[in-house]
Amino acid sequence: IHFTVTADVTRHKSRLHFHDNRQQVYSGFLSMPSKHCEILRVGLSSVRDKVEPLVFSLNASLYETLPKSRRSVQNLDRFPVLSQKPQPIRTQIHIQKACGSDNRCHSNLQMTAQFTNEHQEPFAMQQGVQVFHYYSSIKRLLLEVNVTNAPSPWRLAEDAHSAALNVSIPPSLKYSGVRTK
Q: Residue of 62, 96, 108, 151 with fewest CB within 10 Å of its CB?
């Protein structure tokens, strides 16, 4: 039997490779009828995507030379038979994460933002909008962003993988840096 195992089959750029050949695809042969177990070791590259499972696909086909044609009818009992359209066998491994029994992450990310002065004092609000009064003594304008992931009665707060915050700074302001708490 000729077999081919493809690792991380659902991804364009695989997160896995087989140790034997350092590739995403491994092919081999097994002789029948003896029972034999082939153990394949895989390596995992740096994983940024922990949400999607690792999917493996196994394809098998007969690897046997056909008998020389004879004029008499052959006894086919000694020849193995496969389905006309063999389907690959797929299995998946979910990366452990705090995402519930369905392996889908349902986060509840909430964000608030406000402008503050150098002493992290928020600017005054007028009719629900922050107002900035410019004075030449003001050298820094800070943007304070608070991101939370807390459960609410209608939404879980499971892991939020690959979440990103993008801030666009107008050309009239000069970027200074980021401080995290």
A: 96
**Per-residue pLDDT tens over the stretch 49-72:** 777 889 999 998 877 666 666 666
d(CA 161, CA 51): 7
pLDDT digits (tens, 9 = 90+) for 13-48: 888 999 999 999 999 888 777 777 888 999 988 777
Question: Helix (H, G, I), strand (E, B), or coil: what is residue 67?
Answer: coil
In Å, how far are 27, 38, 43 from 15, measured between CA atoms? 18, 22, 8
- Cα–Cα distance, 106 to 85 (Å, whole number): 39
Taking residues 141-159, report their average pLDDT: 88
pLDDT confidence of residue 67: 60
Q: Give the list of residues 6+ apart from residue 168 with CB closer than 8 angstroms, or none.
A: none
Please tell me whether the overall predicted TM-score, pTM, comes out greater than 0.85 for this model.
no
Tokens representing residue 89 in the block: 């066998």
